[in-house]
Amino acid sequence: MIETIKKRFALSTKGAKDFCKGVLMTTLFDLALILPAVFVFLFLDDYLRTVFLPAASAVHGVIYYAVMGVAFMLVMYVAAIFHYRSTFITVYDESATRRISLAEKLRKLPLAYFGEKNLSDLTATIMDDCTDLEHTFSHAVPQLFASLAGILLIVAGLFFYNWQLVLALFWVLPLALAIILVAKKKMGRLNKVYYQSKRDVSEHIQEGLECIREIKSCKREPDYLARLNAKIDFNEKKMQTRGELLIGILVNVSQSVLKLGLASVVIVGASLLSLGTIEMFTYLIFILVASRIYAPIEEVFNNLMALFFLDVRIERMNEMEALPVQQGTTAFEPDSFDIEFRNVDFEYESGKQVLKNVSFTARQGEITALVGRSGSGKSTAARLAARFWDIQSGKILLGGYNVGTIDPETLLKYYSVVFQDVVLFNASIMDNIRIGRRDASDEEVLSAARLACCDEFACRMPQGYHTIIGENGETLSGGERQRVSIARALLKDAPIVLLDEATASLDVENETRIQAGISELIRDKTS
Fold first, then answer.
1. Fewer CB within 10 Å of terminal CB in the chain, N or C?
2. Are residues 87 and 216 part of one domain?
3. What is the DSSP string of 26-93?
4. d(Cα 57, Cα 342) in Å, to the nearest integer?
């Protein structure tokens, strides 16, 4: 049962157990909320009988009902505390666990995965989808199951009181529920399209922010905004409005069907009363129940719609959790750092084969250059050497060990990487270089920076090496960003160096000057 709940609602094991506890506590809380009605029922049953039956007398006095009222309030208070702790608090804990679990999943995925996927989609999954699940699970889902349990208990109790009136009261329930369930598939399709259209809007906005210079320089603002408005209109005016309209129609029609039960109780009750089968008091009680019992059922329908809305997000969470991760041993201490490709085949998820039966050896202390036309697989081979992807067949060996059997984080400790597409953080120049080795002293960082010729531009900045350089180093030129990346690799001083067009962003003069730093970087290493 726990495993079924985990899969159905994308929960952890603890979250599934807490969910069951939350449903139980919510059910008890809902039952506790019925206690005032029970109090009124018992009081009226005791004192109104003296009105309909003059010969009868009240069984209990006012003090008895006063004590009962205080006891009922205490029960409701305790039930409310346990309900809050078992729903809201545990749901927020589970939401934190879910976000951490997703982050851990992303951390263990192949690094190349992030180059193939849109980052706005991943961000929305961690933030928006988790938030939607959090809100719904803290308010709607436990209440849905608790309301169902409470309704069943009420039906069972009333059934023993008078089964004819119970049938008259609840014959409409299967019909109203059928209206909701028949349209479930249609709502599922609408929710998926709405979900994707919302992601399309987010991706288009992110694309515009990232490419704003290109858009402006090519005078494409009107075209960009027109396409953005079209996506927003499709998302809001068509999908969101259509979905809410469908939900509103279904819920209101089902609620209207439920109201027929009240008329049934009035008609059947009057018939039974005329035959002398029931007392007037019983008839009045059932009319009172009929006027209130449909409210929690209507709440069930609303919560059921919320659960349907969550289905596409739960499916997305399960897809993320099912992604295969890279694993391997953390016990890895090679005797040498030769890299050997043995009959390596590799193709992307699209099916495009890049490497076929490739074999070569990059020896420690030597420079191995991959030369070829664009698209021939040079960058791919460099990334495969560091296990950014896993190959389809063949072997890639590091010091005689198959890199596919080594934990990626353990493996990457032995690599310094300088690629053409440099990534910097919104931090100081010194902090960006220190990422290469977090425990490095300031003098070690500055020494690596000088070898990479960073002094030239860093000393011109307001706070020197402590100057914040903006998101992805936006205040630096392409060549300056490249030099920070080389300084980072120099500081790490790993035994294997991967250089992919490492000086492509530099002018001839600076490239010549940096060659000295690169020569120091690759000394006695596998390059």
1. N
2. yes
3. HHHHHHHHTHHHHHHHHHHHHHHHHHH-TT---SS-HHHHHHHHHHHHHHHHHHHHHHHIIIIIHHHH
4. 98
pLDDT tens readout for residues 234-251: 888 788 888 888 888 888
- What's the start-to-end Cα distance of the chain, in Å? 54
Confirm whether 453 is domain-assigned.
Answer: yes
Residue identified by tokens 């927003």 is 232
Q: Work out the angle at residue 315's Cα, subtended by the Cα atoms of residues 313 and 319, and round it to the nearest 5 degrees.
A: 115
Q: Is the pLDDT of residue 231 over 70?
A: yes
Q: Using alpha carbons only, how large is the chain's radius of gyration in Å? A: 34
256 falls within a domain: yes
In a domain, 333, yes or no: no
Alpha-carbon span 310 to 246, nearest angstrom: 16
Q: What angle do CA 474, 443, 336 make, to 5 degrees?
A: 90
Give me the amino acid identity at 17: K
User: Do residue 299 and residue 439 come from a single domain?
Assistant: no
Domain that holds residue 394: 339-521
Nearest C-alpha neighbor of 303 from the set 136, 487, 66, 73: 136
Tell the burial category of 235 from Cβ atoms under 10 Å away from its Cβ (0-12, 13-18, 19+).
buried
How many of the other CB atoms lie within 10 Å of CB of 274? 9
Cα 127 to chain centroid, rounded: 6
Residue 304 covered by a domain? yes
Would you say the pTM of this structure is higher than 0.70? no
Residue 322 Cα distances to 10, 316, 317, 318, 471, angstroms: 11, 10, 9, 6, 32
Query: What are the DSSP calls for 192-255, one per residue?
Result: HHHHHHHHHHHHHHHHHHHTHHHHHHTT-HHHHHHHHHHHHHIIIIIIIHHHHHHHHHHHHHHH
Rounded Cα distance, 16 and 3, in Å: 8
Contact at 8 Å (CB) between 325 and 488? no
pLDDT tens-digit readout, 51-102: 656 666 667 777 888 898 899 899 999 988 988 888 888 888 888 888 888 8
Spatial distance between the Cα atoms of 479 and 468, rounded to a whole number of angstroms: 17
